[in-house]
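Appendix B. Chain record.
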Amino acid sequence: MHSRWILLALVAAPVFALDQLSKVWITDILLRSNQPIPLLFDWVQLVYHENTGVAFGLFPDHGGWLSVGAGLVLLLLAFTYQYLLPAESSWVTTAVGMIFGGGLSNLLDRIRQGYVVDFIQFGWWPVFNLADGAITLGVTALAFHIIFIGDEPAPPEPEPVDDGLLSELLSRDLEPTSTASSLHRNSESSS
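Structure tokens predicted for this chain:
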């Protein structure tokens, strides 16, 4: 059971670290340039945005309540992962790890700053960050597993291997061994 949480941490930690580092790096660059940086014409660009709401800018200016809600959601996810989700599925562990990594990174920003830095903009889609992308991918992968895969069947029991030992044991004579017979004869002669 502990290996399951270790694998989850191995997925969540890089997501968390990558998101935090990207925010520090992009904040420095974008605040110095003070203008969006186009990556693919105006359709994909890097822009600095302080998000006081949830993912994709929903529910702005509710950071305090959202921080509490996000923390409760992560606790509920931990409980669900421990007791309800399939224990042996690496698919589920990876999906939950992505959600944890992204969720903890955004939660840390909300507690520390009161907002989350978003910086990736695709066309008309709301500005987001790497944590939002990881959460979205994790939720999508988890929903796909629950809806289409469900409980994975238990691995089949291995077939017994005939190494000849059983046949050898069954073919042995039930007569006492020669050592045991000689010991028995020696004890009779000495008495």
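Further analysis of this model is presented in Appendix C.
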